[in-house]
Structure formats: C-alpha cells, structure tokens
From TrEMBL:
<dbReference type="InterPro" id="IPR011006">
    <property type="entry name" value="CheY-like_superfamily"/>
</dbReference>
<feature type="domain" description="Response regulatory">
    <location>
        <begin position="1"/>
        <end position="106"/>
    </location>
</feature>
<protein>
    <recommendedName>
        <fullName>Response regulatory domain-containing protein</fullName>
    </recommendedName>
</protein>
<feature type="modified residue" description="4-aspartylphosphate">
    <location>
        <position position="45"/>
    </location>
</feature>
<dbReference type="InterPro" id="IPR001789">
    <property type="entry name" value="Sig_transdc_resp-reg_receiver"/>
</dbReference>
<keyword id="KW-0597">Phosphoprotein</keyword>
Length: 121
C-alpha cells in the first residue's frame, strides 16, 4: 500500500487537472468502481504473471478507458501494444517519471479538446 499511497500523493499534486476518484486492490472491486465512476484514465499496477491483470486490461479496453500501466520491469510493458495503454510508467515512481506521465495525459486531453472543438464547427 505504500506505493499506492505514494502515487495518490503525487497525483494530488496535479490538482485541479487530475484527481484520484477511487482506488482498489482487488479485481472485482476495481470493476465495480470503474462501472460506477466511469473514469477517463486508470492506473493499473500490472504484473504480467497475474492473469487477472490481463483480464482487467481486456475489460478496460472494451470500455475505451485510457490506461497508465505501472510496471516493475519494462519488459512487462510489451503487452501494452494490444490494449488501450496511453503510457507505461516504471516503478519505483520518481518525480521525473510522474511528470512525464502527467504531461502525456495532459497533452492527450488538450488534443482531444482541440479535435472536439474542430468537429463542432
């Protein structure tokens, strides 16, 4: 839980642009909270050895939710090509990799807004 709490604190530094809506430490709880809260982005603490993580990735892809994949080894990130993974972040979290991640998320949000505004004209 230290990693999760540390990540929550770092995310909260980026308020009001981003905020932690809910956290979960189990598959069923995560699915329930995702259905209820309809997040734009999910941070998934991913372990390639855990089949449940792969199932959750499939569920998130079907719901068209952007995923930030948190991995302990970059080789685990190779799975990201098959899913809706916006970015991969390697643990342990650092100020630098958190900043890169949020800049990427923010850039995507801006691009989506620009595309939306263009299509409205």
């Amino acid at each position: 839980m230290v990693e999760l709490n540390g990540l929550k604190k770092k995310i909260n530094q980026y308020k009001p642009l981003f905020r932690v809506v809910v956290t979960s430490s189990s598959f069923n709880d995560a699915l329930t909270k995702i259905k209820k809260n309809k997040p734009d982005i999910v941070f998934l603490d991913f372990n390639i050895e855990n089949r449940v993580d792969l199932i959750l990735l499939k569920e998130l892809k079907q719901k068209n939710i952007s995923i930030i994949l948190s991995v302990s080894h970059l080789k685990d990130a190779l799975v990201s090509f098959d899913y809706n993974v916006l970015h991969t972040i390697e643990r342990p979290y650092t100020e630098e990799n958190i900043a890169v991640t949020f800049n990427k998320i923010y850039g995507r949000l801006i691009r989506n807004e620009v595309l939306f505004n263009i299509s409205k004209k």
